[in-house]
Design brief:
It is a single chain. A hairpin with a 2-residue loop joins β2 and β3. The longest helix is centred in the last third of the chain and has 18 residues. By secondary structure, this protein is of the alpha/beta class. The strands form 2 sheets. The chain has a 6-stranded mixed sheet, sandwiched between helices. Strands 7-8-9 form a 3-stranded mixed sheet. 38% of the residues are buried. It folds into 2 domains: 167 residues, 3-Layer(aba) Sandwich (Rossmann fold); 104 residues, GMP Synthetase, Chain A, domain 3, CATH 3.30.300.20. Helix content is 35%, strand content 23%.
Length: 302
């Protein structure tokens, strides 16, 4: 690790909040890269994903986490563990809400955030999606959150429209402690190339299927072969039921073909290289409730 001067700042900036408040959109806006899934569906982020921003005199290690929820099965329990872990190692905590969010959702988690703020952790309260409300309503929300988190600094923003993001970025940088970088200066994330292929495919499943299908699916890259002019990828889409498998494939394979075409385009944009993508669908019964299978898919914190 290279030595840094006495004014170099570095730290962990962890993003938490309820489902579908715009955490992943904010993460991608702050990092400047598309690292986290963004769809209109809740519970799209399943893992804790690091995005690293480097400057000459700073390193920001952003962490996007799953939305805080009351778990109904083992997978959601693991997702909640990822969110709770973000409260442990934060130098700056971004608690994200939005203009239509219900602050009474997951009140227990909010209490933990309040304790962190009271104990001295820098907490930034982010009111997202302000482009969807009026100035009067926004002022009421700011006053409400002042009473809920009096130690927090409040930032009204629109992550989607990039309004207020630059000011938030500067405030985060100033709040980081002085110290050397935690990662090499050319590193963008802690995740592998295969991980982002998985996430891109899963995003297209979220976009193309309704009801329980997207939440019953996991993706695993079986092979990733990078040649000089092309990347050859084979991936398996796992679902929990035979009936789900038929829906994912579609009539004469049409639905799966659509997912593959959309995913291939985004994978090519991500790697800036031609991609040959093969997708298969298999059944892995009740994997969301199976501890061993969850560990296999990377949902184990230990």
């Amino acid at each position: 690790m290279p030595l840094c001067n006495a004014t170099h700042r570095s730290g962990f900036v962890n993003i938490v909040g309820n489902p579908n408040v715009g955490k992943s959109t904010l993460m991608n806006a702050l990092v400047g890269e598309r690292l986290s899934i963004i769809t209109s569906k809740a519970q799209t982020t399943r893992h804790r994903i690091l995005g690293i921003v480097n400057g000459e005199d700073f390193q920001m290690v952003y962490s996007d986490t799953p939305g805080v929820l009351s778990p109904n099965y083992r997978l959601q329990e693991k997702m909640l563990e990822f969110s709770r872990s973000a409260l442990v190692d934060a130098d700056v905590l971004l608690y994200v809400t939005e203009v239509q969010d219900n602050p009474e959702r997951n009140a227990d988690f909010l209490e933990k955030v309040k304790k962190m703020a009271s104990a001295g952790t820098r907490v930034f309260l982010i009111i997202n999606k302000i482009d969807l409300t009026t100035q009067e309503t926004l002022e009421r929300l700011v006053e409400f959150w002042h009473t809920q988190l009096p130690e927090a600094e409040i930032f009204p923003i629109s992550a989607q429209e990039r309004f207020g993001v630059a000011q938030l970025f500067d405030a985060i940088k100033d709040a980081l402690p002085v110290g050397p970088p935690f990662f090499p200066k050319d590193q963008l994330t802690d995740k592998s190339e295969r991980f982002f292929v998985n996430e891109i495919i899963r995003e297209k499943i979220l976009m193309n299927y309704d009801k329980e299908i997207p939440y019953s699916v996991e993706v695993e890259v079986e092979s990733f072969l990078e040649e000089e002019d092309i990347i050859r990828i084979s991936a398996i889409i796992y679902c929990e039921r035979d009936s789900q498998k038929g829906i994912i494939i579609g009539k004469a394979g049409s639905a799966l073909k659509r997912v593959g075409m959309m995913a291939r385009k985004d994978i090519e944009d991500f790697f800036q290289k031609q991609v040959f993508l093969q997708l298969y669908v298999k059944v892995d019964r009740d994997w969301r409730s199976n501890t061993g299978r969850l560990k296999h898919y990377g949902y184990d914190l230990t």
